[in-house]
Amino acid sequence: MPKYNNPPIIESVCEIRFTEDTEWDLTIPGLIFEDIRSEYPQKGQRSTQEINISTSNTHPVTTRHQIKRQDYAVFSTNDTKSSIQVSGRVLLTNRLKPYQSWTDFRSQINTAFETLCKRTKLAGVQRIGLRYINKIEIPTDNGKVKMDNYFDFRPFCGTRLPQTHADFKVSCIFPYYDNRDACKVDLLSAMPDKQGSMAFLLSLDYFLAKPRSIPVSQTIEWIESAHGQVENLFEGCILPPLREIFQEVKE
């Protein structure tokens, strides 16, 4: 796959959620910190909220909203660019710009996973997600960017519609391996950092769509395969002028 001197990746995330029968207690995050503190000495926390929507089979149909709070222990490198985050049966590995290489990020994921394996018995995998967020800035021509020069994944407007538009979002989910896996690809407009440019966020989120469909022992192998599919999709979304902006390495 092509390599770039100026990759557009601003964040990479690998999240593994384990099944409810996985052994867990409140001491696990602290034990993990003791194992990794030489490399991830900064300690903090963050909280998220998830909204679950369920509907009944009764008549009339009723809808119930449930808000679930998730608290994470966050262990970061001194520059805060890399972190390992732990919550109840959730392990998250994160890398912010600058993204060095897949080799480095994979090593970070391996460290987190192997450390957790030492501290508890993992019964099953509920979900794995490997997500890359790319911020792409393109110099404008009279304030405009002709997107079909740069993207093979883009909004399409028929001939009876205006051919210029403001903010947009395009999204598609691609299935893999008989729907065991899937990848959600989003392209949307963003605020540029450079004057005279237009900015776009290209997000690729490859995930395990069927819970327990791989054994715990194949977790890292699955992540390696997922990365290959994400690379293929990314290359399928862009055209040669973007590779020039990313400064493709010629071998």
Quick overview of this protein structure:
This protein has 251 residues and is an alpha+beta fold.
Describe this structure as you would to a colleague.
The chain is α+β, with helices and mostly antiparallel strands and 251 residues long. It folds into two domains: 10-49 and 65-123, TATA-Binding Protein, CATH 3.30.310; 132-251, no CATH class. It contains four helices and nine strands, in the order βαββββαββββαα. The protein has helices spanning 28-36, 102-119, 219-237, 240-245; strands spanning 9-18, 42-55, 63-76, 82-87, 90-96, 125-139, 169-176, 181-190, 197-208. The protein has a nine-stranded antiparallel sheet with strand order 2-3-4-5-1-6-9-8-7, with helices on one face. Strand 4 (82-87) and strand 5 (90-96) form a beta hairpin. Helix 1 packs across helix 2. The protein is globular and about 60 Å long.
- What is the terminal-to-terminal distance? 11 Å
Helix content: 10-25%
Low-confidence stretches: none
What is the total number of structural domains?
2
List the helices and strands and how they pair.
Layout: E1 9-18, H1 28-36, E2 42-55, E3 63-76, E4 82-87, E5 90-96, H2 102-119, E6 125-139, E7 169-176, E8 181-190, E9 197-208, H3 219-237, H4 240-245
Antiparallel strand pairs: 1-5, 1-6, 2-3, 3-4, 4-5, 6-9, 7-8, 8-9
Any descriptors?
single chain; 251 residues; alpha+beta; TATA-Binding Protein; 2 domains; nine-stranded antiparallel β-sheet; 4 helices; globular
